[in-house]
Design goal:
The chain is built from 36 helices and 30 strands. By secondary structure, it is α+β, with helices and mostly antiparallel strands. Helix 2 crosses helix 11, helix 9 packs across helix 10 and helix 35 packs antiparallel against helix 36. The longest helix has 23 residues. The radius of gyration is 54 Å and the shape is elongated.
Length: 1084
């Protein structure tokens, strides 16, 4: 019974109208969740308005083709894309994205659409271009011309391509992030492209802006709906029952007497008549384009008017494209007749008398006996609660639109068949769905080839890049507005749905780059005159107009340039040298590979070119044992030995033996090693030929075992002797190129034609040593400004990375030698000498090279340890280090130690090529032959039956002596010949004319004519006549003898005699040759 009472009281207390709730709840739930969106294909498509169909591309559409996308890995691309779209929202422009794939290549287009106003569409186009490139610097977008846009739309959105009807699928719904932390964005458009690889399809994304006023109306409607639904979400009932009993006893006695007399007479009459007739009828039908109106009342009442208007407002679309429609009809009639007459008469008379007596007595007694019972009931309507939560979410989204804008957005997939269209739509929907996508219902609608009329009509809308309008006809007592497949999305949600590929796909390269400085800022301000411009700032894949200027004086603290083959190292050096030359700073380039520099600078009149092959360049000539007078001889010897240690594998006592041999050579040449003076007035320096002769003597005189001596001779003597033969022998000669040409003017030294890396390293080291001594000798003051730069190409030949460990046989000689060279490089800064050290691999170089260079220029490096080693030295962070292998050719990371941050620099291609054209010095060759012939004529004149007539002036003899001084003859032999030439000049006498000096004469002739070469050529002869003929032919190559048979015969005898001395086995041949000559009455 109590329960029945409770229910009765509940019904009595609950005044809510549940019938109204049920009706309104069904409608509100439907439109808040947008359940109707899945039924679009079952309704008719509203025909395209004539005005809309006649709009031209020029009036309303602009498109860009995306060629390349560049991202900054430290910035969120979704947020940046949201900024781009928000900029377009501010100018009231629709956003268009088209993804067009032919199965092999995919093209991406971004664009804008305005409402038939060419001025507005141009503003929108500029906004998109500048905002996109501002947020994604380095990306490439191509502005399509109107005919190109028309061709694209006709080709990709044509629903009747090649006469076959195509299929259109649309995706509607709310996109959201799968990972709310945004750490790993996995919803990039490349996922769709990769999934649909090999399929022909077009995806068209359309987002129309929703006006702020409309958003406010939607928000108001949702709030009112929320307020009206809240009472139905939860309710609490409290019921209490109380039983009680009460007894009361009372007595009342009273007497009243009243006498009244009254007379009243009244008469009234009324008569009236009236007649009215009338009728009215109203019919109306309205439809408007441009304007989103909320759905008001009409069956739901004021409670649901606002939110239903919100739901419909979003689905109808923006001010650009939506259409609303309504119809009404009413009919009324009335008729009335009225007639009236009135008459009134009245008479009144009253007499009254009253008496009253009252007596009252009372007694009360109450007794209460009863029970009290209570019950509390809580009710919750979960369906209403869930709907309220969804309204809350919608309100949050609407609030977000105040910051990022609100859009009506949908995606359309056009494909040759239903399968491809639905697979693409399903794939895209799955990619876009995230944690908060369930706020609204999502759906895929497909207009198939069986619905040709609808497909055709939808295609006409899409060609105008507008949402198709659907006529929703439902039996719910409402005048339903037209709707579109679009969903209301905030700016952030649009950036998720219409996002860009995050990884490269066919047709759309995607790069992820690290950020570098965009200006050169340093801790110290320097004048512009002390800087050189080397290129332009390269930011996020694009060349900017900001110059990259490096401080010239910082270059005096040396520069390191590195990059793999083809990365642009050489062009970088060309640009540096060119700019330095403009500041009147000369250069020396030591190039052990390729020989490119002479093709760029070699043809300039102010550039000297030397090389190792006289057929292509003038021959480099340098004597390693020569040094400036201001340098101490022992100082020079120490440097030279260190150079050998750095370039050759030396072990055990080899360096000590080599040093002893070099010291002895100087002593035999007349040098006092302690005082560093030459005994003679004229300075004379030994050559490598002298060292080759002395070195075996030093080894034999040592106390080493015979086996060790043999090893040293095989390893050390053989190496030194190789420096006296071939091209290298001609380079290491007594005849030297002046230091002024090498170290004070522009000079290129091409070592590329030397095959041995050890020999290249040795040549580089000796040049380096000579440069150091030259700078030390000519230093005017300390800490000079930059006066000269030296480029060391392929520097690992001279400065290889060495181990710090020491062997049992001795210390790490090569490591110590390299350390000596690097220290010398560091010290030469004080003389105004700057080094530009160039190499492909930093990992091959001694670490001090990278550490002691103030300027770093880093081009593309694919190897990990290389880029890490040099990157850390250039103050690069991890992302910037990882950027090194992706650098374009000609783009480098530049950093000077006083800069705040490194910058990317694009070096311009050096175009001022002035190639070197070699002209072989025939005059010099013929002069050498003439000088050799003249000296031979003088030295062998005493052996002639008739003394030759010499008409040589003192000047000509002096010239012969000068020429002889610069030859490669052993120093002692050369000095002897010079003395005899002086004797001939002064006394017309020569010691070699005496028979007792025949041994010395033969040695001189052998060395003057390179007897070993001539002998090797002639030894294959089969007879003495053939042998003589070969020897005479060889003599004509080396000396001008003027067909003097007797002189030739005497020279041949000297050559054969000297060969028999060096090779005792040849003595029998020599004696037989002499006998044969006498028998044939030849001169001897």
């Amino acid at each position: 019974m109590t329960q029945d009472v409770s229910l009765a009281y509940q019904k009595e207390l609950d005044v809510r109208n549940y019938e109204e709730l049920e009706n309104g709840f069904q409608l509100a739930s439907s439109f808040v969740q947008k359940n109707y969106i899945s039924e679009l294909t079952s309704h008719e498509v509203v025909p395209v308005d004539a005005d809309l169909d006649s709009a031209t591309i020029r009036q309303q559409i602009r498109l860009f083709k995306v060629g390349k996308l560049v991202y900054d890995k430290n910035e969120n691309s979704i947020d940046k894309l949201s900024s781009v779209y928000n900029a377009l929202f501010n100018v009231r422009s629709a956003i268009i994205m088209i993804l067009d794939s032919d199965g092999e290549q995919t093209n991406l287009y971004l664009g804008v659409r305005a409402n038939r106003d060419e001025k507005n569409i141009n503003v929108a186009k500029e906004t998109l271009e500048k905002s996109f490139l501002g947020n994604f610097p380095g990306s490439d977008i191509e502005n399509l011309r109107n005919p190109q846009i028309e061709d694209l739309l006709n080709r990709s959105i044509d629903v009747k391509r090649n006469g076959n009807s195509r299929v259109i699928s649309t995706v509607s719904g709310i996109p959201s992030l799968k990972d709310s932390n945004k750490e790993n964005f996995v919803q990039g458009m490349e996922k769709l492209v990769d999934a649909m690889k090999g399929e022909n399809f077009t995806a068209v994304f359309i987002s129309d802006p929703i006006l702020h006023k409309q958003v406010e109306e939607m928000q108001s409607g949702y709030e009112k709906l929320y307020s009206q639904l809240v009472p139905f979400a939860q309710c609490d009932f409290n019921f209490n029952i109380n039983d009680s009993q009460a007894i009361t006893d009372s007595l009342t006695l009273g007497f009243n007497e009243t006498l009244n007399e009254s007379l009243t007479q009244t008469q009234s009459f009324t008569n009236g008549n009236s007649e009215t007739k009338g009728s009215s009828e109203t019919k109306g039908k309205t439809r408007s384009v441009a304007g989103v109106a909320p759905l008001v009342g009409a069956g739901i009442g004021a409670v649901f008017a606002g939110p239903m208007g919100a739901a419909f407002g979003g689905s109808i679309g923006s001010a650009a494209a939506s259409m609303m429609g309504s119809t009404s009809e009413s009919k009324a009639s009335n008729e009335s007749v009225t007639e009236s007459h009135s008459k009134t008469e009245g008479t009144s008379s009253t007499t009254g008398k009253s008496n009253s007596t009252s007596t009252q007595e009372g007694k009360s007694e109450t007794l209460s006996i009863g029970n009290t019972k209570g019950i509390q009931l809580n009710f919750e309507n979960k369906a209403v609660t869930n709907l309220l939560e969804q309204i809350d979410e919608q309100l949050k989204r609407l609030k977000s639109s105040n910051d990022f804008g609100m859009w009506n957005t949908a995606c359309y997939f056009i494909a040759p068949n239903q399968q491809v269209a639905e697979v693409a739509a399903s794939t895209f929907k799955a990619i876009m769905r995230g944690e908060n996508s369930s706020i609204e219902h999502s759906a895929i609608n497909t207009w198939t080839s069986e619905q040709k009329d609808k497909v055709s009509e939808v295609g006409r809308y899409l060609k105008q890049l507008k949402h198709p309008i659907i006529d929703m006809k439902v039996e719910n007592g409402l005048d339903m507005p037209y709707v579109t497949p679009g969903s209301l999305l905030s700016g952030k949600e649009v950036a998720i749905m219409m996002n860009l590929p995050r990884k490269s796909v066919s047709g759309i390269p995607v790069l992820e780059t690290a950020e570098f400085g965009r200006n050169v800022f340093s801790y110290e301000d320097t004048e512009n005159d002390s800087k050189i411009n080397i290129g332009k700032v390269f930011h996020m894949g694009k060349v900017e107009q900001t110059n990259v200027a490096v401080d010239i004086q910082s270059l005096a603290m040396h520069t390191f340039v590195t990059g793999s083959t083809g990365s642009g190292k050489s062009n970088t050096i060309y640009k540096l040298l060119h700019e330095l030359n403009r500041k009147h700073i000369p250069f020396l380039v030591i190039e052990p590979a390729k020989g490119e520099y002479k093709k760029i600078f070699g043809g300039r009149e102010d550039v000297h070119v030397f090389g190792t092959n006289s057929k292509f360049t003038p021959l480099l000539k340098i004597n390693p044992l020569r040094f400036p007078e201001e340098i101490h001889v022992l100082e020079h010897i120490d440097r030279l030995v260190e150079i050998f240690n750095a370039c050759w594998p030396m072990y055990a006592a080899m360096p000590a033996v080599l040093k002893e041999a070099i010291e002895r050579v100087y002593e035999e040449n007349g040098w006092d090693l302690e005082l560093s003076i030459h005994i003679e007035d004229t300075l004379s320096f030994p050559t490598m030929h002298d060292l080759v002769k002395v070195l075996p003597e030093v080894i034999h005189e040592s106390g080493y075992s015979e086996e060790l001596k043999s090893n040293y001779i095989g390893a050390l003597v053989t190496r030194v002797k190789s420096l006296t033969n071939g091209l290298v022998g001609r380079i290491f000669s007594g005849e030297e190129i002046e230091n002024q040409y090498l170290f004070d003017e522009n000079c290129l030294i091409d070592l590329s034609r030397i095959g041995s890396s050890e020999t290249k390293a040795l040549l580089m080291g000796i040049l380096f040593m000579r440069l150091q001594e030259h700078r030390m000798t000519n230093a005017e003051e300390m800490n000079q400004s930059l006066k000269h730069v030296t480029v060391l190409e392929e520097a690992h030949h001279l400065l290889p990375k060495t181990s710090n460990s020491q062997s049992q046989e001795g210390s790490n000689l090569q490591g110590k030698s390299v350390e000596m060279i690097t220290n010398a490089i560091a010290e030469m800064r004080t003389y105004g000498e700057g080094f530009i050290i160039v190499d492909q691999s930093p990992n091959l170089l001694d670490t001090s090279v990278i550490r002691n260079t103030n300027t770093k220029v880093i081009l593309r490096l694919p190897e990990g340890s290389d880029r890490r080693e040099v990157g850390l030295a250039a103050s690069l962070n991890e992302d910037q280090i990882n950027e090194i292998p992706k650098l374009k050719t000609g783009v480098s990371i530049v950093y000077q130690n006083n800069w705040l941050q490194p910058v990317l620099c694009a070096f311009e291609k050096y175009e001022n090529e002035n190639p070197y054209v070699h002209k072989e010095d025939v005059t010099s060759l013929s002069q050498n032959k003439k000088n050799t012939g003249d000296i031979l004529k003088i030295l062998l004149a005493g052996r002639m039956t008739e003394k030759p007539y010499f008409n040589k002036s003192e000047q000509e003899i002096n010239e012969l002596q000068t020429w002889l001084s610069n030859t490669n003859l052993p120093t002692s032999l050369k000095q002897n010949v010079l003395m005899e030439l002086s004797s001939f000049k002064n006394k017309a006498e020569v010691k070699y004319w005496e028979q007792s000096s025949f041994d010395e004469l033969s040695n001189v002739v052998w060395n003057l004519l390179h007897g070993d070469k001539i002998q090797k050529y002639a030894k294959a002869a089969m007879s003495f006549d053939q042998y003589n003929e070969k020897l005479r032919l060889a003599l004509k190559r080396y000396a001008a003898l003027e067909e003097n048979y007797e002189l030739e015969q005497s020279i041949i005898q000297c050559l054969l005699y000297q060969h028999s001395i060096e090779k005792p086995a040849f003595k029998d041949f020599y004696f037989n040759w002499v006998e044969d000559a006498r028998q044939k009455e030849r001169y001897l």
